[in-house]
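Open question from group meeting: does this chain pack into something compact, or does most of it stay loose? Before anyone orders reagents, we agreed to write out a predicted structure and look at it together. Recording both the input and the output here so the notebook holds the full record.
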Amino acid sequence: MKKNGRFIFAILLISALFVGCAGAAPSNVANNSDQPTLSVTGTGQVFVVPDIAYINIGVRSEGDSVTEAIAANNTQAQQIKDALVAEGISEEDIQTSSFNVYQQSDYDFQGNPTNSYFSVENTVYVTVREISSLGVVLDAVGRGGANNIYGVNFDVEDKTEAQSTARSLAVQAAQTQAGELAQAAGVELGELLSINSSATTTSQNFYGYGMGGGAAVADSVPISAGQMPVNAQVVLTYAFK
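Structure tokens returned:
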């Protein structure tokens, strides 16, 4: 699958903590807990274009008996699976995530039960690896009998390069802050004592909607994946010379 390798970079500089500027640094900084230090936090952010999507597709069926309800649900579920496979979705990327059977009743205006029946809900978790076909896939499952789609989550299958770039940007941001603060305070940076880092990715969500009992949706559902940020944060702690 062809990846979109274009990144938009943005460096965000956030707060720096300047500790203990006064006094001369001891010669053995590693063994002195009273050593004056400078701690700075830098954040790097990279925007990437999603190349994979995850969707939960639900089928709900009813019947006068458990057997009837399950049989109807199995038929609908198979139609949806066939529609997915026909659109190029691998069977390994179609996974049952929940299956529920429960009894329901209808009541009159006085609260008396008038009818009892059984409902079956079957939800499958689908991975769409060709994100350009997502609209067609959603249309296909709607025509295949899906009752509900519980959200679409966009992601990047391999975030290694983006995370590495974000970390580099975060380190550069922290180093720049440390140099500026030391110069402003009239001190000279010494040994780098510690580095702490973290990384986060914010997935893009397209919220679910009902399919109206299997009614067809638009010829091709218009969905835009947009961009998603990959963030990294580092905290650098320096001694003074």
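Observations to bring back to the group:
Helices lie at 66-86, 134-144, 160-185.
The mean pLDDT is 81.
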